[in-house]
Design a protein that fits this description.
With 254 residues, the protein is of the alpha/beta class. It contains 11 helices and 7 strands.
């Protein structure tokens, strides 16, 4: 997708940490793909609240983990979870500026929030040592299609349309082919890209939508419309709410 650069999404980080989300299972899948000696420097690209960053620390007990996120609230919460001395940096992943090049990059459920994947992959490649590995997973083509259909059905609702009309899309759910091509153009090799499904039935549908799926929309809507917007999405989506994810897996070498 093209267009104006996408602004970072601001998150309800403390509420996000309280949600029971599938990201933990996804993280384990990504981490299992690494073959590390334990002394590497690893970048967590989109570290969020830092809960999953702790897993990286366990993989490199004699190494160095750098956590980067564009959201100020996420970095603040990550400092609570990881400690003040942990190497956390508030940066846009499209414009990374690190003090050293890294041996590996990990990312879970982040890349689909960024429209400019060509820029993103060039930025990541630029901070990686030759031979460094990228292991990532994000939403892919067909991700949460039921939620997208519900949002499309609300496109003409005049309570919300003036704030959302004319904007770029909230997510970039890229295809396997486009992702493989963009990685190659950025300089990556040994590229593997594949998808797998993952269905989630949230125990707290309202909270899950508010904190995990709809923060981009909340950024654009006045606060007094947030609750009515969530209700409208829930009323429009199939019941009981099921979120059918399509996970786009990325494995590549710099």
């Amino acid at each position: 997708m093209t267009g104006a650069p996408s602004d970072p999404v601001e998150w309800r980080a403390h509420e996000y940490d309280d949600q029971s989300i599938p990201h933990h299972e996804w993280s384990e899948q990504i981490l299992a793909r690494f073959e590390l000696k334990g002394d590497e420097t690893v970048l967590d690209a989109g570290c969020g609240t830092g809960r999953l960053t702790k897993k990286l620390v366990e993989l490199v007990p004699n190494g160095h983990v750098i956590g980067v996120d564009a959201s100020a609230s996420m970095i603040e919460k990550a400092r609570e979870n990881l400690g003040e001395d942990f190497d956390l940096r508030q940066q846009d992943l499209r414009q990374l500026d690190l003090p050293e090049k890294v041996d590996a990059v990990y990312s879970s459920a982040v890349f689909h929030w960024i429209q400019e994947h060509e820029v993103l992959f060039r930025s990541l490649h630029g901070v990686m040592k030759p031979g460094a590995v990228l292991e990532a997973q994000c939403g892919g083509d067909g991700n949460i299609v039921e939620i997208e259909r519900a949002l499309e059905a609300l496109a003409g609702d005049e309570r919300f349309a003036p704030y959302l009309r004319g904007e770029r899309e909230a997510w970039n759910y890229a295809s396997i082919e486009d992702t493989r091509s963009r990685l190659a153009l950025a300089g990556f090799s040994d590229i593997r890209v594949w998808t797998h499904p993952h269905a989630v039935s949230p125990s707290d549908p309202r909270g899950y939508l508010s904190t995990v799926i709809l923060p981009w929309h909340f950024d654009r809507l006045p606060p007094d419309l947030h609750e009515s917007f969530v209700r409208a999405v829930l009323e429009t989506a199939p019941q009981p709410l099921a979120v059918n994810y399509v996970r786009l897996n990325i494995s590549a070498t710099a």
